[in-house]
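REQUEST ID: PR-0412
SUBMITTED BY: lab tech R.K.
PRIORITY: routine
TASK: structure prediction, single protein chain
INPUT:
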Amino acid sequence: MSIKEQVNHRRTFAIISHPDAGKTTMTEKLLLFGNIIREAGTVKGKKTGKYATSDWMEIEKKRGISVTSSVMSFPYENYYVNILDTPGHEDFSEDTYRTLTAVDSVVMIIDSVKGVEPQTIKLFKVCRMRGIPIFTFINKLDREGKEPLELLSEIEDVLGIESYPMNWPVGMGKRFLGIIDRFNDQFVRYMGDEKEEVVPLGELNKSENPLFASVFDELELLDEAGNEFSAERVMKGELTPVFFGSALANFGVHTFFDTFIRFASPPKPRKTDDGMVSPDTPIFTGYIFKIQANMNPAHRDRIAFLRICSGKFQRGMSVQLTRTGKTINLNQTQQFLASSRETVEEAYAGDIIGIYDPNMYQIGDTLTEGKEQIHYRELPQFPPEMFRKVRVKNVMKSKQFKKGIEQLVQEGAIQLFKQDSNDDVILGAVGQLQFEVFEYRMRAEYNVEIEFTSIGERIPRWLVEQPKDRRLFDSRSLLVKDRYGRYAVLFENDFTYRYFSDKNKDVELIDLFEANDYKSL
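STATUS: complete
OUTPUT:
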């Protein structure tokens, strides 16, 4: 196949949800369809010893949560699928936001019992901001939950996107009979034990259960007053197709995935400093959106995750790291099934590959086989909200301490600052769990015990110019440097920030959320 044909057969998407809505369970079922695994593990498989394939880090298995973005690739029918299973926990939203830059579509999972939840709202806003097509799977229909019409209203009112139900549930919980597949004009009967029966609607005996009468009344209402299906509006992120089912019972998932593959977006053009680059451009380009150290603890390796944006990748090819101008031979390249990996010989725009990182890459780096100095503008930066001073308990472990911080900061797992007056190490994070994972990984991967001292929640602002008078700053307006050597101020609270700004109008401060080009500060 030509590069254009290969690209059109790629589907790269992320799965987002609030914690415990069934996101990782859904991922496991999709891997089953790709014949990648024989039996799906569950996130909460502690008692059985059966853990989710997509959760590879030991702390994820113990706590039953996903705290890293896993990448999984496999062929499915005539397509090649790349799934990014993102952390659902809000403390890891920064990692999730970066992951969302690398996908072309999103599957949003909603718990039918709880409806639209806060973390779903946050992640949805990022998707809408980027114009990513969103497909919705309403999960856990085998439990008693909210009425389907109420769930559709929540999606439209809370998230602000129009919806089109591709199927419609008949009952729920113990009364759950199956789904009316509107798109394929059939009834899929729920039989338990991952079994189902397909009945054409024309052959369905509607009098077999009173539930069918109310369901067909609801379907008539949807036909008359509901939104019309439009593939074009789905691609623009203006309309979300909605599917009902149960990931755990593996019901409705196959129907959903087949329809999703059909309508999901293939790889799209990507924005660089010099304009858009089409995915079927012959020249290979891509950017690094994630770095992960110690995926294989036996080898203490570092893997950079690269989203291919254009052209064809071939193992051993020479590329240029545009940030440094250095030429690199890509010999050690892999694709993933959680912690399992295999060498990849070729890949195309839309694919996610892992490349061995000899401590050379940074998040946001662009690689290209061309001679032009292009740079992809895909990765936003996020200011941390919580800050801790950190020190090593055993000074004899200072070398390992420094290496651990350097590598975990480069991953984007946590942000690093140093106090200007005394070089104290300060870590910044979006949430408390990031500190816990950092401490766990320092101990497990670098054999270092650390100690935190809280300096509380702070308001970070970056200085446009180097400070001319350091006497302006104190413990309430802490002067620090970030990992790039840029000066920032950590304000104790909003009052301190406003007081400082009013008193020092010649000191220009930047909020990262408002900065268009953070790295040029």
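NOTES: DSSP finds twelve helices and 31 strands in the chain.
REVIEWED BY: pending
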